[in-house]
Design a protein that fits this description.
This protein is an alpha+beta fold. It has a domain at 81-120 and 155-240: Transferase(Phosphotransferase), domain 1 (Orthogonal Bundle), CATH 1.10.510. It is built from 10 helices and 11 strands. It has helices at 33-45, 86-89, 92-111, 121-133, 137-151, 194-205, 216-228, 232-240, 242-254, 263-278, and strands at residues 13-19, 22-29, 49-50, 55-58, 63-66, 71-76, 81-82, 114-119, 156-161, 173-176, 180-183. The protein has a 5-stranded mixed sheet, covered by helices on one side. Strands 1-2-6-5 form a 4-stranded antiparallel sheet, with helices on one face. A two-stranded antiparallel sheet has the order 8-9. Helix 4 packs antiparallel against helix 5, helix 5 packs parallel to helix 10 and helix 6 packs across helix 9. It is globular and about 55 Å long. The protein starts with 12 loop residues before the first strand and ends with a helix. It binds adenosine-5'-triphosphate and magnesium ion (MG). Residues 4, 7-10, 12, 14, 25, 27, 59, 75, 77-78, 82-83, 171-172, 174, 184-185 line the site of adenosine-5'-triphosphate.
Length: 282
């Protein structure tokens, strides 16, 4: 039996179950049930988008049940490729469809958002706690360098505030050339802004998070696909909010630091943070 948990990083349990001839995925949340409810609500309320090439929707919420010690989400099992499978299976056409669809999603989120001032101290506070929780000395030094970047910023900065997926990595995107693109694993975030999705997509398209453990030949194919099919919306939104996108990209990367357990991820994170800290747009 396929064990979906091998693809998951969180402690939520994923099981395949069968209901009325339909294969489903049951996800059990054991920690922070209130947050799980907010995550699932985002998934339920997501309105599908049509890009001309593909439909982009969320996995349907068939059932969401809250028990005393856990919450359970039931959704259909979605066939398709995800995350680290893209470089192995994606053709140029598929990569193009994905890129255009992700751009449509980002533009739609941006259209629905409103600009509002955000206190930069919230980023400092987040980075402070990341720094305290990071044991690896090389990573801690880089997280502290991110803190210095934040300390040099004005007290407030404008952000487009509005809907976002919240954890838009390629492992939360399921792509099927026939049925289109399905988003899973929505996340309630500390700052609801489309720039969160831009930062998470950069983590994959620029830094290759989802492919970091692939064999070198696949990593090269992934890099080429990501370079040639970089979502245009990221380029444009970065032009509008260069400092804000860089700030959230640094924070997105830095937040991985306390959880790093293997050398490949440690080296990947050192390279990615060093590169992002050296980027010139701030
Ligand atoms: N409804 C679904 N249909 C098909 N595959 C699924 C479905 N839900 C989850 N998966 C598979 O299981 C993986 C992990 O699921 P999910 O992202 O919900 O878990 P997670 O524990 O929050 O993972 P992570 O923390 O890594 O994002 C997905 O990347 C996908 O490969
Ligand atoms: Mg996930």
């Amino acid at each position: 039996m396929l064990d979906l948990n091998q693809f998951a990083h969180s402690h939520d349990l994923l099981e395949i179950v069968h209901r009325d001839h339909l294969s489903c995925v049951r996800k059990t949340f054991r920690s922070d049930v209130a947050r799980a409810r907010r995550n699932v609500e985002k998934q339920r309320l997501f309105r599908p988008l049509y890009t001309g090439m593909a439909r982009l929707g969320a996995a349907e919420v068939l059932e969401f049940v809250v028990h005393a010690d856990r919450a359970e989400l039931l959704m259909p099992y979605i066939e398709g490729m995800t995350g680290h499978m893209f470089p192995v299976h994606a053709t140029r056409n598929v990569a193009h469809t994905l890129s255009v669809s992700l751009s449509t999603l980002l533009y739609s989120e941006l259209n629905e958002s409103r600009e509002a001032p955000v206190a930069t101290s919230i980023f400092r506070d987040k980075l402070d706690s990341v720094s305290s929780a990071t044991r690896d000395s090389e990573l801690k030094r880089l997280v502290d360098a991110c803190l210095s970047v934040v300390e040099a910023l004005p007290a407030e900065m404008p952000f487009p505030m509005g809907p976002c997926h919240g954890d838009l990595t390629l492992s939360n995107v399921i792509l099927d050339p026939v049925s289109g693109i399905t988003l899973i694993d929505f996340l309630d975030t500390f700052l609801e802004t489309p720039l969160q999705d831009v930062a998470k997509l950069k983590q994959d398209f620029v830094y290759g998070w989802s492919f970091r453990k692939d064999p070198p030949a696949m990593t090269i194919k992934a890099e080429i696909l990501c370079r040639h099919h970089f979502p245009q919306a990221i380029v444009q939104i970065e032009r509008m909010y260069p400092t804000q996108v860089r700030l959230l990209t640094l924070l997105t990367l830095a937040r991985i630091a306390p959880y790093v357990k293997d050398t490949v991820t440690q080296q990947w994170l050192v390279r990615s943070l060093t590169d992002c800290l050296g980027a010139t747009s701030l």
